[in-house]
């Protein structure tokens, strides 16, 4: 059951979702959605009932103190809305949570029912996986969809994967059956440095999301965090000759494989992003959160607009 506190009227809404767990190597995907929520000051307005989807022996609730009163936070999936301002404002519905323990089909149906109610036009699901990729090179981002028309229009791959899947794959498939356009963006995280956080992978996901939905995302300290992360891994690799040799092998394989792709198109895409960040898009200060939605039964027409 979705616990609603009213539903705002949204402008060209896109749902962006990420889930902690199997689909979230280095916490890169969930951190990306958390970044959007923080930068645009999103406020949670709905949550799925934790009892329906989570095994509390796997994802335990946490106890905390509030002014001397003990309170409990239950693991769940929460939704918030942020408004991206500028000449063409639009809203993002942010979905943050933990991969559910059970009843995945019902879980996806709840989210899609909510997306339908809000008029969501596109669902973007972020994920991260472990891969044979060197930390010294740009993070590979693969964009996949089950919609052939969407794949052509947005220069994405049609999903051809076969094998075990997580909630990202299940939600994308549910979107396909429901007729909702959906895209999955996956970051490849070096398997030899998989522990979170991985700000470089988070930054790469946000850059690809920025291109996909045509909004300018304020990056805050992420670029500097990504540089510091890489320097730290460089130092660790330099201290172990076997790791350094292995990284060099990955670099050579990556450079050889991608040499044909060092094309004018790739260079133009990066240059366009640079121009957009320099003077082509609204500044981070133009972003505001939408007013909180009215309480159920309220007569006020003005719309006001957690991690686990």
Summarize the structure in words.
The chain is 38% helix and 22% strand. The protein is of the alpha/beta class. Helix 4 links the parallel strand 9 (141-145) and strand 10. Helix 1 crosses helix 6 (199-213) and helix 3 (104-118) packs across helix 5. It is globular, with a radius of gyration of 20 Å.
The coarse overall form would be: globular
Poorly predicted regions are: 282-308
Radius of gyration: 20 Å
Helical residues, percent: 25-40%
In round numbers, the mean pLDDT is 84
Rounded to the nearest angstrom, the distance between the terminal CA atoms is 18 Å
What pattern of helices and strands is seen along the backbone? EEHEHEEEEHEEHEHEHHHH
Task: Classify the beta-strand content into a percent band.
Answer: 15-25%
Number of E strands: 11
Strand order of the largest sheet: 1-3-6-7-2-8-11-9-10
- Count of DSSP helices? 9
Instruction: Please describe the biggest sheet, giving its number of strands, its sense, and whether it closes into a barrel.
Output: 9 strands, mixed
Going by helix content, strand content and strand pairing, the class is: alpha/beta
